[in-house]
Specification:
The complex is a heterodimer. By secondary structure, chain A is mainly alpha-helical. Chain A is rod-shaped, with a radius of gyration of 36 Å. Chain B contains 13 helices and 8 strands. Chain B is globular. The chains are: A mainly alpha, B alpha/beta.
Chain lengths: 215, 306
């Protein structure tokens, strides 16, 4: 027994939430009456006559206060001057929407992926070869392969991340231009390829590559 | 250690033995080794419910030390996996079981090797009944939807509450407490454990904390038996609510068992109701209930009892 009935607030007496509507208050009052009325089987012999009368009087007061909006506002203010009536332990954490589809299928490893990316960036900044290739004015498929191999990324990884067909990736690296898709697609592919290697100037490099192809 | 389920209710005829035998039957049927103990001392009749009309050993033999080990007075029943300690030929003075015998019995029960032990307790609020009920935290209260029965179940719950509080105090301390309660709240108030707890909260805060913790660990259950069609189905839930609100004890309402003339027939024929009338409403209710209480266990108390 944590608290006596007469020390509960009106909401607790009627077992309702602080934001209960008038309809809810009314039905809660009816339910309470069913329990506490003198002819109720539930509370028969549970209380002495005085206790029962006291409880019924309290319930009536609670009901009449809460059902009257003006009085309810005053009462709310009284029991909790800061505004909202908060009943302990009732706070609900709101669930945020979650993605149903994980485009990269790497949801669980997202942290690992982040680390992987920073690792790649460090490698890029340290590698002379990569820097040298990126500063060239003419970049071919073989150069892309050189960068990839320098960074130690397999072609399959790129395929998985970018979802570009493996044979296209191979054609790109082998410079078999006749097999490559139309320029519109190819440009995007190259960009995605470079991005998956975490190369920042992917736009510029892909433009240079496309120019080099001369299509 | 076995799961012990004491079954108590304030009033006679509310279905304690019926529930004990049915529950035992259902547990045994699901393959659990189950023991029924008839602790309705002085008014034992559980043996009749499980079709053992002439038990050759009974609880008195253990109390009078004729058979020294409790395990040895266990008798089989016609049902596989179901065993019984009967009280059929108990001495007529068994109802006044002395304290040390009761403690010996409780300790022996704790040592038995069964999956489930169902204690069929007597009506009323004698100390023996209360102590056996408090042997486990899984106590089941049973009542019928009649004011007399509900009145008695409230009394029983209060008596158990009080008995448990009593364990936290020495005799002298308890006397002090009693006087304080009477001073603060009037002569009559000592009969209400909720008043006593209010005083304990004020005067013995550390004891209040442990009592509160203790009672939160209890998983009492309430079953409403013999619910007729015109009765209020929400009654059980409301009873639990009012107990929670005014006594601060958690009692789970397990369910209603429908009133069924067939139960009377089965008892008169001295056959197991669930076997004789397996497709009646009451039988369905019993099976449903068994499924439900199977999920919620409180820990056993027996060993840290004294």
């Amino acid at each position: 027994m944590d608290q006596d009935f007469d020390q509960l607030n009106y909401y607790e007496m009627l077992d309702i939430k602080p934001d209960a509507s008038a309809l809810e208050i009314r039905s809660a009052y009816n339910t309470a009456l069913q329990i506490y009325q003198s002819d109720s089987m539930v509370s028969y012999s549970f209380f002495s006559r005085e206790e029962r009368n006291k409880i019924l009087a309290l319930l009536e007061k609670a009901y009449l206060t809460l059902i009257n909006e003006a009085q309810r506002a005053i009462y709310d203010n009284e029991i909790n001057p800061s505004g909202n009536v908060v009943i302990e332990g009732k706070s609900v954490t709101v669930k945020k929407p979650i993605n149903i589809f994980d485009i990269n299928r790497q949801g669980k490893n997202s942290l690992m992926r982040k680390n992987h990316n920073t690792e790649l960036k460090i490698k890029i900044s340290q590698s002379q070869l990569v820097g040298e290739i990126l500063s060239r004015q003419n970049i071919k498929g073989a150069d892309l392969r050189a960068i990839r191999e320098e960074l130690g990324v397999t072609i399959e990884t790129i395929h998985q991340e970018t979802k570009i067909r493996l044979d296209y990736l191979n054609f790109m690296e082998e410079d078999r231009t006749e097999k490559l898709p139309a320029a519109v697609f190819l440009k995007g592919f190259v960009k995605a390829y470079l991005k998956s290697l975490c190369i920042e100037q992917a736009d510029g490099v892909s433009a240079i590559y496309m120019n080099g192809l001369g299509r | 250690m076995a799961h012990i389920w004491p079954i108590g209710g304030g009033k006679g005829g509310s279905g304690k033995s019926f529930l004990a035998s049915s529950l035992g039957r259902l547990l045994a049927k699901s393959g659990e080794k189950t023991l029924l103990i008839d602790l309705d001392l002085g008014a034992a009749n559980l043996h009749t419910m499980v079709d053992v009309p002439y038990p050759d050993k009974c609880f008195s033999d253990f109390v009078s030390k004729k058979i020294p080990v409790l395990e040895d007075i266990v008798i089989g029943t016609p049902f596989p996996n179901l065993f019984l300690i009967s009280g059929a030929h108990d001495n007529l003075d068994i109802a006044n079981l002395p304290y040390e015998k009761k403690m010996k019995t409780l300790k022996s029960i704790a040592k038995l090797h069964y999956d489930y032990i169902v204690l069929d307790l007597g009506a009323g609020t004698a100390f023996n009944t209360l102590d056996f009920f408090l042997a486990s935290r899984n106590g089941i209260f049973i009542t019928t939807p009649e004011p007399t029965s509900i009145e008695n179940v409230y009394r029983l719950i209060r008596a158990i509450y009080m008995r448990r509080i009593r364990h936290y105090f020495s005799a002298a301390d308890f006397k002090v407490l009693e006087n304080r309660v009477k001073q603060n709240l009037g002569e009559d108030s000592f009969n209400k454990p909720e008043h006593i707890v209010a005083v304990i909260k004020k005067d013995f805060p550390e004891k209040y904390e442990s009592i509160k913790k203790d009672f939160n660990a209890f998983k009492f259950k309430l079953i409403l038996n013999q619910l007729r069609k015109q009765d209020n189905v929400a009654l059980g839930g409301q009873i639990c609510k009012i107990i929670k609100k005014h006594l601060g004890i958690n009692v789970d309402f397990v369910g209603n068992i429908a009133y069924d003339e067939h139960v009377h027939d089965a008892i008169c024929q001295r056959v197991c109701f669930l076997d004789r009338y397996p497709h009646t409403r009451a039988a369905n209710d019993l099976r449903e209930m068994n499924r439900k209480i199977g999920y919620s266990f409180g820990e056993q108390l027996m060993l840290n009892y004294l």
